[in-house]
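Protocol step 4 of 5: obtain the predicted structure for the target chain.
Materials: sequence only (see below). No template structures provided, no constraints applied. The aim of this step is simply to have a reference model before the mutagenesis design in step 5. Sequence pasted as it appears in the construct record:
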Amino acid sequence: MSQNPTKHTKVLIIGSGPAGYTAAVYAARAMLNPILVYGSEPGGQLTTTTDVENYPGFSQVIQGPWLMDQMKEQAKAVGTEMIEDHIGSVNLKSTPFEAVGDNGQRYTADSIIISTGAQARWLNLKSEQEFRGFGVSACATCDGFFFKDKEVAVVGGGNAAVEEAMFLTKFASKVKLIHRRDSLRAEKMLQKKLMENKKIEIIWDSVVEDVLGDQEPKNVKGIKIKNLKTEKTEELKLDGLFIAIGHDPATSLFKDQLKMDNEGYLITKPDSTETNIPGVYAAGDVKDKTFRQAVTAAGMGCMAALEAEKFLSH
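Step 4 output (structure tokens):
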């Protein structure tokens, strides 16, 4: 088979979602003719979110997949070239930077914006996946509001799990925190707050074995948990389950080329999206484990495009 000729661009955007699409809109409007390469899940995590109530500009509830579609069409309309391909390797050690797709397509670029995102870790139970978006969630700030005066559980033991549990007490009548060990990994200060909160009950040494619920209409009714020390299983009645066992940023592609923290998130300079290599920028959940919101990702995409434009003009 004949190889496609190398595609060159001033700005190569790897990954879609609010960060990638917003970067594309700004880069295209700056006449940089960006190429955006998206993988098998264009739109990222938002495409698995149904109701979005916290994206500015919409007074009515909107759907995550629809919002991502609109962003994609907007980026296209202003002049972004969109290519579906999976980038298998990159070389950031010399310029122009180079990326190679799985099918052998080569891309060269004067600057790169990385917006490959992250994925929530799941328990990987069949029932959990079945009720995703119907009572099972990995984001309390996104979905907590839908559990007003209901009983929910959070799975996890780190800072994220404790923060999610605390946040959910604003809405839920009762929050159970389920942790597989007999002590939490979260910061002491957070643990103290957690213990003082009357709405929270901690269930130690336990794992979720199954999510129970109805099919018509689809909603969670409870969970089955197992105590790892006593081997006893029991069923808890619940309206919602939040999984908070961490996220995995999609950064394996950049190992040994870009600076990352111990969890694999790309590190950028303060008040900037620039990585340790000038001309290479990171935006959205691939570098942000603090906020993880569509609007903050979009904001970083804008920053990355403006920084890339400035970099290219010098």
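Step 4 remarks: The chain is about 25% helix and 30% strand. The chain has a mean pLDDT of 95.
Proceed to step 5.
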